[in-house]
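Entry 14. Structure prediction run on the chain below.
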Amino acid sequence: MNTKTLIVAMVEDDEEIRENLLDYFELVEDIDCVLAVDSMEVWNWESRNLAQPDVVLMDIGLPGMNGIQGTRLLKERHPDIDVVMLTVSEDPESIFEALCAGASGYLLKSTPFDQIRSLLLTIRDGGAPMSPRIALKVVQHFHPKRTPIEKPKSVLTGREKEVALALVDGLSYKQVAERLHISIGTVYTHIKNIYKKLHINSKAELIKKSYKGEL
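Output returned:
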C-alpha cells in the first residue's frame, strides 16, 4: 500500500465547504492541501508557480468556467493530475459528462469528511473514488435492469399440451389415452395437430422442443 502524502488542491466556490475541508485536511497527516480557490479563473492565476498536486477537488457549479470545462482543461494541460469532482449534483448526465471530461472520481458534498479522505487516498493505489450512491448509478448505467423477456404463448391447446407432455414422459399412445380418458383415435388426431403446429415429424423432435421450453 502506498503511504506517500497525497498532495491536494481544491476549486470550490462555497466558502464554508472550502474552509471546512481545509481545516479538516490540516488535522490529517496523509493529505496536504496546497491551494484552495473559488474559480478556475483564479486557479489559472494562482497555480502558475505551484508544484503539481496529485489531486484537484473540483466543484461542478463554479462561477465562470464550470467544473466540467475546468476538468477538461486541467487534463489537457496536466494529464497526470487526478481530478475528483466534489459536488451536490448526482444526476447521471453530470456524472458521465465529468467522467468523459477526464475526472477520476466523483464525490458528493454530503459525504462525511473522513470518508472523503479515505476515498481520496485510494487514488495512491490506482483507485477511482466515488460516493456510494454515485458508484451505484454508474453500475446501473452499464448494467441496467433487464426487462424479463415474455415467454411466447404456446400454439398448442390445453389438451394438445397434455398429450405432448404425456409422450415426453415416455407413455405409449394407449397409456396416453388411458391417462387422459380419451380414445386412441383422439390421441392420434392430437399428435397429428401437435406435429403440424410445432413443425416437427418425430417424438424425438417433440422431446427436444420440450427440453427447450417450446411446447
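Residues 23 and 33 are 10 Å apart (CA to CA).
Filed with the rest of this week's runs.
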